[in-house]
Design goal:
Strand order of the largest sheet: 4-3-5-6-7-8-9-10
Distance between the termini: 44 Å
CATH topology of the largest domain: Fructose-1,6-Bisphosphatase, Chain A, domain 1
Order of helices and strands: HEEHEEEHEEEEEEHHEHEHEEH
Number of helices: 8
CATH architecture of the largest domain: 2-Layer Sandwich
Shape: globular
Strand content: 25-35%
Structural class: alpha+beta
Number of strands: 15
Largest sheet: 8 strands, mixed
Helix content: 25-40%
Number of domains: 2
Length: 259
């Protein structure tokens, strides 16, 4: 048992409960509203967030919480939960089954636990600092592919893409530099796919802390590397993320530098 096992087990259980809520809602038409021109939110996002906050807050009342749908329960506590109650909301709203619950935990600013659950496939990724990374209880590792041109990489685009064109240049460069590029629409799952060797790398811009907190722990504990575009260690409050199996990381940073 690791130093943070109690928190990891709690996060796993809460993620499963939130996942069941999301699975039930997937098959019905719920209310959808817009936070921006193409940035939507569903009643399932808010219901999942309320459930997670209630369950974790009830068990750990002295902890802080930050979550996507406006939750800022901050007192300066040593522990902070960073939550995306439904990462991949656009996919969910269109009945495309690529989305997840993402629950990360930081202790004194350092990421120590991460849980990511795809409720439609029942794949639960989890990791604890110093304890390794797991998929449904089985250990996972990053891939051993060392060449970017033999790598499958993933990315995403921000909600202001129509105005900013953010990431278009990098995307085009990776199309030519990697074997293939995927854009699936849930950063937390993309990070976990790097961790279990399905992707060799992932990059994205204009991310939020809840997009990366849990997945970052899983990548690191699976033997991967995650940084900003300058190669500095990951900071979930910095909007750039480059994650990889470590072997293609410098090549990815090179492509990003050209963009």
């Amino acid at each position: 048992m690791g130093a943070y096992s109690e928190y990891l087990e709690a996060a796993r259980g809460v993620a499963r409960e939130a996942g069941e809520l999301i699975r039930r809602d997937f098959y019905r038409r719920g209310e959808i509203s817009f936070k921006g021109e193409i940035n939507l939110v569903t009643e399932t996002d808010t219901a999942s967030q309320a459930l997670i906050h209630t369950l974790l807050g009830g068990r750990f009342p002295d902890h802080d919480f930050v979550a996507e749908e406006g939750l800022r329960d901050l007192s300066g506590a040593e522990f902070r939960w960073v939550i995306d109650p439904l990462d991949g909301t656009t996919n969910f709203a269109h009945r495309f089954p690529w989305f997840c619950v993402s629950i990360g935990l930081a202790h004194r600013g350092a990421l120590v636990c991460g849980v990511v659950l795809n409720p439609m496939t029942s794949e639960l990724f989890s990791a604890e600092a110093g304890g390794g990374a797991f998929l449904n209880g089985e250990p996972i590792r990053v891939s051993a592919i060392a060449d970017l041109d033999r790598s499958l990489v993933a990315t995403g685009f921000p909600y202001d893409i129509r105005e900013s064109r953010t990431n278009m240049a990098a995307h085009d460069r990776f199309l030519l530099a990697a074997q293939a590029v995927r854009r699936c629409g849930a950063a937390a799952l993309d990070l976990c796919y790097v961790a279990c060797g399905r992707f060799e790398g992932f990059w994205e811009m204009k991310l939020n802390p809840w997009d990366t907190a849990a997945g970052a722990v899983v990548v690191i504990e699976a033997g991967g590397r995650i940084t900003d575009f300058a190669g500095r260690p990951v900071d979930i409050y910095h909007p750039e993320v480059c994650a990889s199996n470590g072997l293609v990381h410098e090549a990815m940073l090179g492509v990003l530098g050209e963009s």
